Amino acid sequence: MLKKILVANRGEIALRILRACKELDIKTVVVHSTADEKEMFVRLADESVCIGPPQVKNSYLNIPSIISAATIANVDAIHPGIGMLSENSSFAKIVNDHGFKFIGPKYDHIEKMSDKVKAKNFAKQLGLPVIPGSKKNVKNLSEAKTISKEVGYPVLVKASNGGGGRGIKKVYNESELKDNFLLAKKETIQSFGNDNVYIEKFIENPRHIEVQIIGDNNGNLIHVGERECSIQRRNQKIIEECPSPAISENERQKVCNITLNAFEKVGYQNLGTVEYLYSNGNFFFIEMNTRLQVEHTITEEVFNIDIVKEQINVASNGKLTINQDQIQKTCHSIECRINAENPITMFPSTGLVKTYHPPGGPGIRIDSLLYSGCSVTSFYDGLIAKIISKGKDRQECIMRLKRALDEYVIEGIETNIQVLKAILSHQDFVKAKFDISWYDRLNS
Questions:
Q1: Domain that holds residue 74
Q2: Which residues of the chain have pLDDT under 50?
Q3: Which domain-ending residue is among 163, 180, 201?
Q4: C or N: which end of the chain has fewer Cβ atoms within 10 Å?
Q5: Burial per residue of 62-84, b for 16 or more beta-carbon CB atoms within 10 angstroms, e otherwise
Q6: Is residue 112 assigned to a domain?
Q7: Which residues are designated catalytic?
Q8: 120 in a domain, yes or no?
């Protein structure tokens, strides 16, 4: 068993990993920037190491500093968390080369999935259905015109190394292509450090369905059901739920089984989330996240499993503690993401949290970085809390979330709580009649 783990992340996800480690009686070390020295995850770790100034590139993305911290603290393994370096295959290899366990998939699997063009080609080889589009990065406007004409408008221009909805432009005809192609490349280089983009067919108003898989080092791979992630604002998830209210049990089994069969072929290890667009009974692979997901919480509630502990167990002794037969749905669960932002303009909100009172009661879980007196800065992602409900059915989940959001007190900064309450009360949401464009259409 691992004795000491370094968490190379911050905020609520660092706290989530710390809690799993403590329940496994594993010592913890966190790295942090100067801006985060008073944060809860730093206070609750057994040890902490400051690795740089507030800017992410100089701290949480500073690989030499993280490796140095791991060496000084004499840890056994490094957990990359979510975002940051979690899908950086070079980092995973460096971690292994320095004698530490990387709590995640094998670096070559991360590398295959880190570029979305490579990922689609790889998925096609594994027998997964993929969206028609370019087979490589699109270098210039001339190539973009040719491929768009072959695929057929409308198309999406997308960042090859993207995430979080950035670097995506919708194009309905050739006259719109030039400006959107150049804008996508500009956003991509600003967000991800290169301007690699690809083109794929735009599927009108699909659902977003993802399948959770976990594999160990002995060839055992299981799926832990699917999640619905269609409530999105500008391609960024706001509300997720498990199981999806949109698909039948036969469709659920179909997408989970094709996913499992595909990744059994390559001996996939540790955690992965395979994402699909769903339209008219068909699933289309779009990408794979080779890491823990923000919305792992709802899967944990529905299937009564600690996903982070399973990650650590696989890295520690190479074995899953559960098998496929033990994966059984026990309830319904919905997660709302609470962001520090102006609810109208959606501009980031920063400042001192003067009062913080999280809700409680039956079926409510809060994963948050907040406490009274903490500061929310502009250096990091605006996600400050996740509120998760579980209930015997979807309706009970919705009512518990509405009750809990009414109880939630966060004073000193602005949040999107009122937006979440409005969505939960909308009849389209209550009746599960939505798709990935629903929220944007509602507010256009």
A1: 4-103
A2: none
A3: 201
A4: C
A5: beebbbebbeebebbbbbbbbbb
A6: no
A7: 291
A8: no
Indicate if 149 and 211 belong to the same structural domain. no
Number of domains in the chain: 3
pLDDT for 152 equals 93
Regarding whether 265 and 178 lie in a shared domain, the answer is no
Domain final residue, candidates 201, 233, 262 = 201
Is 111 among the domain residues? no
Is the same domain home to 162 and 79?
Answer: no
How high does pLDDT run on average in the chain? Answer: 95
Co-location of 376 and 410 in the same domain: yes
Note the pTM of the prediction, 2 decimals.
0.91
Q: What's the alpha-carbon Rg for the chain, to the nearest Å?
A: 21
**CATH number for the domain including 93?**
3.40.50.20
C-alpha angle 151-186-240 in degrees, rounded to nearest 5: 70
Q: What pLDDT does residue 54 have?
A: 96
Can you give the CATH number for the domain in which 313 is found? 3.30.470.20
